[in-house]
Design a protein that fits this description.
The protein has 562 residues and is mainly alpha-helical. It is built from 26 helices and five strands. Among the domains are: 87 residues, no CATH class; 52 residues; 45 residues, Arc Repressor Mutant, subunit A (Orthogonal Bundle). About 7% of the residues have low confidence.
Length: 562
């Protein structure tokens, strides 16, 4: 496998191995090792400079090449090993002691794995003929240089490894005795044993983990000292939500209660961050007294003696209505003042939750912050549901105007309810419009898309269920309010449509069936009429809708989002 990170260094190695005499190659190896000790991984170096330091001259190849320091360290180490291997120098002829991997392991009192890891961190190795075959070896001068530059790392490695069987048994016995007598936690056991025996905590932890893995029946900590995988975290969290206590989960998964609570908080935080949180920002939210003003109890708050005071009130449901339609008459409608209060409150609460979420770290999520976010989300949902329930009769009153058969009425209501929910998320209360106007347009726009084969607006359908439809009309404080709102909205749309050019206006009218008694047309039908492709119609429609939104903003007309 090619371990060079840059082909220029590999090519340089190949040239020297093929053409340079052995004594020159040995000289180049020494120069490369000297250069390697000076390289900073955070800097970059010209290839011409590298060649000059190794060869003594600057070649013509790669004149503008610059090498990254980290890549250069890797390639120089490979260059030293490969070129030294080609010289086939006997270790006895090296001019100074040469240590094999095993000999160096015993000298520094570390494992051979640690030696190989150090080779990637700057310990220079060469290849010598040792015992009749080519093997990796280390010049004593190279080892001394590495130890001098990395004294603390070498000392820590020496404390970490080379435990004999007696020491391992002593560690296990001490840990078992401490757990049985005092019930000490793993971290405390590891720390006390490390201090008593003069070993690093990593060595003690590694020894106890290996013992528990090899002796699961007699394990000291079970899997307490091991990490918790994502799958196990999900299992713990799901069990906790089903009512299983932390104590039982700790025993079941061989973890401490602290670990279990930490996992639960992490999974709660992840769940919170995965949830979509949309809100309409308002400058009022950043005011110093925003919480006091926005969340203060409203003046129109109902009292037990005056249910529905200052609101649209509820109406008595006509007889023989389906259960769902009859239940709508139990819900009080909202005045414009009440709508503004609820929308402002809902969006402000979401804004507060958003600020807390931005600072949330799943790995270090405190329970108090998670509790507060979840409480805010619950309060925002309560306000949202209150707005939705108060406008369900509006959906029914619009759905009845688009129904073609009794069997499709429930589907239309369900579809309209989804449009209503989306409208609640997108409505900007600060513009001064009433929500029912905005929601009506959003619902009708959705119907224009979902049922293009039906007329956009109808005054009456002969379905055999006229009594039901009349009974479920959206009877707000003024019976004709909805019809008035629709007329006002149509007048506003007609006024801003006049600001479009003729072709754009024609496309919008045809696409949404805005002419009385006209059905919405498809892109292809509009294209055939105008003599352009349906893709061009789509482009013109998007441009026209952008203009309409701009005109609507200028005249403070609330239009729903797409």
């Amino acid at each position: 496998m090619d371990l060079y990170r840059h082909p220029a260094l590999r090519q340089l190695k190949d040239q020297q191995v093929r053409y340079a005499p052995p004594d020159k190659r040995l000289e180049q190896v020494n120069r490369a090792e000297s250069l390697l000790s000076e390289i900073d991984s955070e800097k970059s170096y010209p290839y011409q400079f590298i060649c000059y330091r190794i060869l003594g001259f600057r070649p013509d190849s790669y004149p503008g090449l610059v090498l990254d320091g980290a890549d250069l360290i890797n390639d120089l180490r490979r260059f030293i090993e490969d070129v030294s291997s080609s010289t086939r120098i006997d270790s006895n002829a090296a001019g100074e002691p040469v240590l094999t991997v095993d000999e160096l392991s015993q000298t520094l009192k570390v494992s051979t794995k640690t030696i190989n890891r150090w080779r990637n961190r700057g310990l220079v190795s060469r290849r010598f003929v040792i015992g009749g075959r080519t093997r990796v070896g280390f010049l004593k001068s190279s080892v001394d240089r590495f130890v001098s530059d990395n004294g603390s790392q070498v000392e820590r490695g020496a404390r970490f490894c080379h435990l004999d069987d007696a020491e391992k048994e002593l560690i296990v016995c001490r840990a078992r005795r401490m757990v049985q007598r005092c019930g000490s936690k793993p971290a405390e056991v590891i720390r006390r044993i490390a201090r008593k025996l003069g070993r690093s905590p990593e060595t003690i932890r590694y020894t106890l983990r290996n013992y528990d893995r090899e002796n699961p029946v007699h394990a000291i900590f079970g899997r307490i000292v091991g990490p918790v995988g994502d799958g196990e975290k999900a299992t713990i969290y799901q069990s906790f939500r089903r009512g299983v206590s932390a104590e039982i989960l700790a025993r079941r998964h061989s973890k401490t209660r602290t670990t279990v609570y930490r996992v639960i908080n992490e999974m709660r935080a992840r769940h919170i961050l995965e949830q979509r949180l949309e809100f309409m920002y308002n400058p009022l939210f950043d005011e110093p007294n925003a919480e006091e003003v926005i969340l203060a109890p409203p003046q129109w708050q109902e009292t037990p003696s005056q249910p529905g005071a200052n609101s649209g009130g509820s109406a008595k449901a006509p007889a023989s209505l389906p259960t769902y339609l009859a239940s709508l008459y139990e819900i009080h409608l909202l005045t414009k003042e009440q709508e503004v209060y609820l929308f402002r409150k809902m969006n402000y609460i979401k804004f507060c939750a958003h600020r807390l979420r931005e600072e949330l770290d799943p790995k270090k999520a405190p329970s108090s912050v998670l509790d507060k976010i979840e409480k805010l989300q619950t309060e925002a949902l309560a306000a949202k549901n209150q707005i939705i329930r108060a406008n369900l009769r509006l959906v029914v009153s619009i759905a009845k105007r688009h129904v073609a058969s009794a069997s499709s009425f429930d589907e239309l209501v369900s579809d309209g309810n989804m449009s209503l929910i989306r409208a609640v998320e997108k409505f900007d209360f600060a513009r001064g419009n009433k929500f029912s106007t905005y929601a009506s347009w959003a619902i009708m726009k959705n119907y224009a898309r979902s049922i293009p084969g039906e007329h956009h607006l109808r005054d009456r359908f002969v379905t055999g269920h006229d009594e039901m439809f009349v009974a479920t009309a959206d009877s707000r404080s003024n019976e004709m309010e909805y019809e008035s709102q629709v007329r006002q909205m149509r007048d506003s749309i007609t006024r801003i449509l006049e600001k479009l050019d003729e072709r754009e206006r024609s496309i919008i009218i045809s696409r949404f069936g805005l002419n009385e008694g006209e059905e919405p047309h498809t892109l292809e039908e509009v294209g055939d009429e105008l003599g352009v492709t349906k893709e061009r119609v789509r482009q013109l429609e998007v441009r026209a809708m952008g203009k309409l939104r701009q005109f609507a903003d200028e005249e403070h007309i609330e239009l729903p989002e797409d």
